[in-house]
Amino acid sequence: MKGFITLASYALALAASCAGATGFPDQGFSAGPPRVRTDYNLSNEGTAANPLTRGACLYPPSGSPPYVGPCATGPNVYSQSNYWRQNWPASCDVAGANCLYWVLGLNNEDASSTLNPGPPDASLPRAAPGSGIMGFSTLYGNDNFPGDTLWRAHLVLNVSSGFDNPAPGATPFLSLGAFAGHGTNPTIGVLNPSSGSALSVVSFGERLWGFTPPVRRYPTQDSSIASYLWIVTKWGTKPRMIALMLAHDHFKNSSATTVGHNHWNWNIQESVYYPGADIVYIDVEDVVSHCGYSIPRLTTVGQEINYRIDATRLFRCMSSHFDEPFPTTANIPITGVIWANEATGKDGGIWVDVHQMKMITATGALAAGDDEVRDGGAMRLGPGTGAIANALEQRCLESPGCFERESATLDDRVGR
């Protein structure tokens, strides 16, 4: 899934004053409790009071590769908006306010299904982690584990049968992202930076707190879980995106010789992902075969990796897999960076946190050294993470065979 911003919203953002020229809305979660909001600007978007607006399809239907995502004609009205926000001051509701925030995505594919109560990217309500399919919270310091000093965003995607998915067989996608001109500075960073001071490297930490492999909901449906980093830019006439899979179980997007390629339509004009993208997919363990350098993979519960992803290097490497090759033009804007969990099947899920998300310079990345992989061993739980673990354990108790399926290492095999 996922896409881009409207030219109109981008132009408005450029005209507005903002706190800093580039970077994420809150570099490193350094400003205290993170400000987070769901996709749409208005709390009633996608309801009868404020129907969605559909634009033209980015890609026409095609019977040949790459796969073309469907371009839905509706519905444009849903029973509820599933609007949610945290740490939101009243001043941000004033017309013309330029407030910075992170965007929470709650998408349940098929996103345009009439079975979903909410509109695409707000298909299901946000839940406290362990208490619903789309579990999200931000925790600080000792609430994570004793001695911790960070704000961490916990993404807990849970496809337990105890949480009724209104669209059986759906693929839920839970995300947290930054989008240029939509709650974020006009320029997040750049590709092909013309100077050493330009922000071009995505730096962040991700920790795998737990996962339970799902099982098939139907005999014909594979069951899988994955955790992604998505990076969005634009050249030519279309948005371009790389989906880098950091962790996965029973699912692969690429191999040592192939990568995935998708034409994705997202024609909802009010969404940060409008109008879609030309997407290339690659799993981190396959980067070494295609690009000649390594990016570590999250494989084990308790593992934490501090990533520094040189976006230019990755797009250059994947250049030939897009519809148009990556250009040599300097300072191509990075317009979106998203972290996401995705799952198919039932009675399983994945729990990660992302933290210290920053855009940094290539020089800064070199000074920081290689990606750092740490094994946390036995998880030390604080009050917040303890509550999440207890909720997940209770849900697991209600699912036959759940504890037997829990594993310490994610699996490379395809299909279940």
What keyword list fits this structure?
12-stranded mixed sheet, 19 strands, 416 residues, mainly beta, disordered N terminus, 7-stranded mixed sheet, single chain
| Average pLDDT score | 90
Overall number of strands:
19
Strand content: 25-35%
Please tell me the total number of domains: 1
In oligomeric terms, what are we looking at?
A: single chain
Q: What's the helix-strand series?
A: HEEEEEEEEEEEEEEEHEHEEHEHH
Shape: globular
Structural class call reads mainly beta
Termini separation comes to: 22 Å
Please state the CA-atom Rg, rounded to the nearest Å: 20 Å
Number of helices: 6
Helix content: 10-25%
Low-confidence stretches: 1-21
Largest sheet: 12 strands, mixed
Signal peptide: 1-21
Keywords: Signal
Describe this entry's structure for a reader.
With 416 residues, this protein is mainly beta. The protein has one domain. Helices cover 11% and strands 33% of the residues. It is built from six helices and 19 strands. It starts with 6 loop residues before the first helix and ends in an 11-residue tail after the last helix. 52% of the residues are buried.
Task: Quickly describe the structure.
This protein is mainly β. It has one domain. The chain has helices spanning 7-15, 287-291, 311-317, 362-368, 383-397, 402-405; strands spanning 36-38, 67-68, 85-86, 102-109, 126-127, 134-140, 151-158, 171-180, 183-184, 189-191, 199-212, 224-235, 238-249, 260-265, 276-283, 303-310, 332-344, 349-361, 372-375.
